[in-house]
Amino acid sequence: MPTFFKIVPRNESLTIMKYVFCVLGFLFVGIQNCLGQSLQVVELVSMWTSKDSLQVTVQLTTSSDSLEVPIWAFQYDIEISEGLQFSGVTSVATMSEVDGWTTGSNIEKRRVAGFSSSQQAIHKSGPMITMLFVRSLPSEELQLCLSDLRLNSGDPSPNPSRPCISL
Questions:
Q1: What is the per-residue pLDDT across 49-95, written as a single tens digit (0 to 9) for each?
Q2: Structural domain boundaries of the chain?
Q3: Strand pairing partners for 57?
Q4: Separation between Cα atoms, residue 49 and residue 162, nearest integer Å
Q5: What is the pTM of this model?
Q6: Which of 10, 72, 88, 149 has the highest Cβ tally under 10 A?
Q7: How many whole angstroms separate alpha carbon 69 and alpha carbon 36?
Q8: 3-class DSSP state of 153
Q9: What is the number of helices (H) and of strands (E) in the chain?
Q10: What's the fold here for domain 16-161?
């Protein structure tokens, strides 16, 4: 089921340097008063690349081609079934592949984050980032959910509903 987030326009007077400090503060310390959340439909699209390798893309979807509030940063945690092992992320063929974007993951905590340190915000719908998984146990029913999904930072907190996919 799609997940929605409340739109709160960002302060247009923020300089890029202030914005970078804001994003870094959010990612590493939990500072949440710099920018507002962005309202987007977030869907998960999966593709098995081999018998035991899975790619799941986080897809931003809107009714129009452009987002009302651009995405400058994102962060979320991954909840997965025992039969899957998180192995990392790739930005290849996604909107976070452009220069100025930094993406990464903490495999042990199953956390994914990314931010733009340039003028290259995500302004349209499409694939945001792709997560990589390996099937670690034979299982017929697997589930993957994103929790604590934040698009930009700030108040209000993200909507408690979360995108999930059955594999």
A1: 999 999 999 999 887 878 878 889 999 999 999 999 999 999 999 99
A2: 16-161
A3: 45, 130
A4: 25
A5: 0.75
A6: 72
A7: 9
A8: coil
A9: 1, 11
A10: Immunoglobulin-like (2.60.40)
